[in-house]
Amino acid sequence: MRIATAFQTHKKCVIPFITANFPSREVFLDILYQLPEYGASMIEIGIPFSDPMADGPVIQATSFQAIHAGFSIGELLADIKKFRSQQPQIPVILMSYTNPVIQYGDTRFYTDAQSAGVDGVLLVDRATSAVPNYSPCVADIRLIAPTTSPDRFHAIHAQASGFLYYVSVTGVTGTQTPDPQVIATHLAELTPKRLPMVIGFGIQSVALATAMAALADGVVVGSSFLKPLLADSGSAVVQQQLQYIRAISESIA
Amino acid sequence: MTTINQPGFFGEYGGQYVPETLVPVLAHLTQAMTDILETPSFKRELADYYTHYIGRPSPVYHAKRLTEYCGGAQIFFKRDELNHTGAHKINNCVGQLLLAKHMKKKRIIAETGAGQHGVATATVCALFGLPCVVYMGAKDIERQKPNVSRMRLLGATIVPVTAGQGTLKDAMNEAIRDWVANVDTTYYAIGTAAGPHPYPTLVRHFQSVIGQEVKTAFQSQFNALPDTLVACLGGGSNAIGLFAPFLEDSTVNLVGVEPEGAAPLAYGKPGVLHGNKTYLLQDDNGQIASTHSISAGLDYPGIGPEHSCLKDTGRVTYTTVTDSEALDAFQLCAQYEGIIPALEPAHALAHVLKLAPTLAQSHRLVMNLCGRGDKDLDAVANHLGWTA
User: Fold this and answer.
1) A37 is a catalytic site residue
2) B7 touching A (Cβ < 8 Å)
3) Contacts of B184 in chain A (CB under 8 A)
4) Do B286 and A102 count as a contact with CB atoms less than 8 A apart?
C-alpha cells in the first residue's frame, strides 16, 4: 500500500539507491534516516553480492566494501524494522541478486522482509527462472529492459506488482548515459500499463533525472549518488549527496 | 529431489538467472540452436572443420608404461591435447562461432582461465575474420603468459580483470557485463558447460564428440565399452563431453576430479551464479568464496549444472586431488609417456594413479587428456624450485 500511496502523493517519485552498510553501517543508517527529509519518495536498498553481473564499477566497489565489513541480511532486516518504526510512510525496496536470498532461505526472506516493513523486492537476475514470491504483501518489482519486446513486457507486467523498473541503457549500472528519445520511443510500444514505471541505470545529473522523470513516474539514482562516498564518506560529502537528492526532488516535483 | 520440467534444467539445476536485458538474446540463441544445429549443411561444415582444421578424431592411446607402473587397469588416454591449439576447447569454439556466423553476429567475446578457451576463441575468430575480445583475470594473465602471447598474436584484445581474485569467475563477470552492454552485435562464446540456458546444453553438444570418438574407437578395437572414464572438472566441459554419450550405459563408471582448493561438488552447496543454479563454494550469506588451484583452468567456485544433477543422482562419482598430487602426475606423465599434460588433466591423471592399481588388469580405463602442458612449464618450474 505504501508504494501505491507514494505514487499517488508524488507527481514524480525520487528513489535513491544505496548499498546496505555502505560506506559503513553507521553512515548507511545516518543516510537512510535523513533521506525522507531530503525529498526521497521511496528508498531502494541494495543487498550486496560478491558477483554483481549487472552492476558497474561504483556499485561493485560499494558492495565489496559492505561485504568485507561483514554485511548480513539478518542485521539489515533488523535495521529496517527499527527504521520502519520511526518512518511509517516511506516505501523501502530491497534490490538483490538471487543467491543471497536463497541462501538466507527464500520463504524466510520474504516472511522476514514483510515483518521488517519492506514493501517490495527486486531480484536483478531472476529473469525467467523465478524465485517464488512467498509473501503477497511484498511487491514483486520487475525489470523492463531496452531489449524487452511488447510480448515479453505483457508477460512480465502480468506477474509484477508495485511498479516496473525500466533499465534505461543496454548495459550495467552507472556506466552509460541514457538517451531520453530512444527510451520514449520504446516506452510508447509498451502499452497498456497497469503499474507505475520508474527509470534507472545511468542517471548521473539533476538535468538527466529531470528529463527521465518526464518519461515515467519516477527515477532511481544510484551510482552517481554513491560514487563520491567511495572516496570520502565524511559528513560534508554525505551532506552534499543528500543535497543532490533534494535538488533532483525539487527539479522534478 | 525437485525436478523442474523446463528446458535448460538438469533436475533442479541450470535455468536462466540473468538480467532482463539478456532474456531476448538467450531466446534468440536457443532458437538458433534448434533451427541450425541439426541441419545437414551445419553438420557438414562442422565436421569439415573438425577433420581438417582441428585434426579430429583424436587418438585413443594405450598408455602402456603408466599401466605397468600402476599395475592394474589398462590406462588409455583420449588425446584431445593433440587438437589444433592444444586442448579440447576448440571443439566448442568452432561450433559456437559457426553458430554466431549464422546469427550474423559481428563481434565475439569470451572469458578464459588457463587461456586455452581464449586461445581457441582467438584462433577461430582469426579463421572467420571476426574481432575478438578476451576477458582474463590478472592473476591468470601472470601465470599463463604463453597463452596471453598467443592470443595477442592471433589478433585478440585481452582485457585484464582485477576485480575479486582476478581469476576465471571474475573474468566471466566482466564478459557478462560487456555482453549486457553490447547484446545486439556481440556473441558471447562461453568456454565451459555452465552459464545460463542454453549454454550448458550447447557446450555439451559440441564437446560430446570426445565421448563419441571414444565409443567408436572402443567398438572397433575391442567390440566393447570402456569400464571407467575419468576427467578433470573446472566448469566441466571436457568431462561432460566425455561422459555424455555414456550416461545411458550403466556399466561404465564415470569419475570427475575436482581440485581440492576449488571443489564445489565436494564442499559447496546449491546456489545461483553466472546465470545458472548449481553447486557453489560460498559462505552462509551467499557470497561466493575464494578458491585456490594451481591450475588456472580449474580455479572456479562453480560447476556446470548438469554435473550438479549427476552428483545428486549418483550417476557420476566426484572426487578431489591436491595441487601436489597433480604436480606429481604432471611429471610422471612426461617421464613415463613422453607426454606433457596440462595441469588440468594432470588432476585427472593424479586420480587415475590412485584408482588404476585397485582395478583388475582386464579393466579398461579412459582418461581425457584434454590439454597439453606447454603453457604450464613456467608455473611448474616455479613450484618445483627449478632455477634457470
Assistant:
1) no
2) no
3) 170
4) yes
| 8 A C-beta contact, residue B122 and residue B150 | yes
Given strand B253-259, what is the order of strands in its sheet?
A: B60-62, B74-78, B364-368, B228-232, B253-259, B316-321
Contact check, Cβ <8 Å, A60/B22? no
A243 to chain B nearest CA, in Å? 31
Domain B15-47+89-203, CATH among 3.40.50.1100, 3.30.420.40, 3.90.25.10, 3.50.30.40: 3.40.50.1100
Taking the C-alpha atoms of residue A203 and residue A222, their distance in angstroms, rounded to an integer, is 8
Nine-digit cell at B250? 550403466
Provide the ipTM: 0.95
Query: Is A1 among the domain residues?
Result: no
CATH number of B55-87+208-384: 3.40.50.1100
pLDDT tens for chain A, 253 residues long, are: 899 999 999 999 999 999 999 999 999 999 999 999 999 999 999 999 999 999 999 999 999 999 999 999 999 999 999 999 999 999 999 999 999 999 999 999 999 999 999 999 999 998 676 666 677 889 999 999 999 999 999 999 998 999 999 999 998 988 889 999 999 999 999 988 899 999 999 899 999 999 999 999 999 999 999 999 999 999 999 999 999 999 999 999 7
* SS3 label, residue A234: coil
* Partner-chain contact B23 A147, CB within 8 Å: yes
| Domain B15-47+89-203 and domain B55-87+208-384 have a common topology | yes
Domain that holds residue A212: 13-248
Contacts of B89 (CB under 8 A, 6+ apart): B116, B117, B119, B120, B121, B191, B237, B371
Does A44 participate in catalysis according to the annotation? yes
**Residues B287, B233, B286, CA angle at the centre, nearest 5°?**
10
* Closest chain B residue to the Cα of A147, Cα to Cα: B21
Measure CB to CB from residue A125 to each of B18, B183, B288 and give the nearest one: B18
Domain spans of chain B, in order of start: 15-47+89-203, 55-87+208-384
Catalytic residue selected from A55, A112, A119, A140: A55
CA-wise closest residue to A95 among A121, A118, A127, A77:
A121
CA distance B328 to B321: 11
DSSP sequence for B217-250: HHHHHHSS--SEEEEE-SSSHHHHHHHGGGTT-T
Residue with grid cell 588388469, as numbered in its chain: B361
Whether chain A has a CB inside 8 Å of the CB on B164: the answer is: yes
Distance to chain A for B290, nearest Cα, Å: 10
B-chain residues near A145 (CB < 8 A): 19-21, 23
Alpha-carbon distance B34 to A193, whole Å?
34
Q: Is residue A5 part of a domain?
A: no
Partner-chain contact B15 A50, CB within 8 Å: no
Domain of A180, CATH number, reads 3.20.20.70
Cβ pair B275:A104 closer than 8 A: no
